[in-house]
Write a structure and sequence with these properties.
Blueprint (H helix, E strand, L loop, with lengths): L1 H17 L3 H11 L5 H26 L5 H23 L3 H25 L13
Helix pairs in contact: 1-2, 2-3
Length: 132
């Protein structure tokens, strides 16, 4: 249980630091470090993210006025529906194919983020781009 607690601590730090969903870090760690199946890792990741993401990291962003409440609520409704449908689809997919899809998703996301970072002008610390 100690390794799971330490893994949770590390994932929590990255969630707060990078603003990423814990599953991006946790699912591969559970599969490769602790030997979980892809399905079990994804289900476990969903369970653990319920309370800490909703409260833990949000508090700090709220204090710094970096939360769009309306967008967050609207997105949460879509997230709830999409999560239900996506889980139903994931459970019907073979473990190996699901791992491949997860890896492909991470690579595509990394490419988009890297391209955006290279083409975006530098901003001063804390400065925000105008939102639409």
């Amino acid at each position: 249980m100690t390794e799971i607690l330490l893994l949770g601590l590390g994932v929590g730090l990255l969630v707060g630091l990078m603003g990423v969903g814990g599953g991006i870090v946790l699912v591969p760690a559970l599969v490769y470090l602790l030997g979980y199946s892809q399905h079990m890792a994804q289900g476990t990741s969903l369970l653990l993210q319920l309370p800490p993401i909703g409260i833990g990291a949000l508090v700090f962003y709220w204090k710094h006025r970096r939360v769009d409440v309306q967008a967050g609520i609207v997105c949460a409704v879509g997230f709830l529906l999409g999560g239900y449908l996506g889980s139903d689809i994931a459970l019907a997919i073979d473990r190996r194919h699901l791992q491949g899809l997860f890896g492909a998703f991470l690579m595509v996301a990394a490419i988009f983020l890297a391209r955006q970072a290279r083409s975006a002008p530098a901003l001063e610390n804390g400065e925000e781009r105008a939102s639409n």
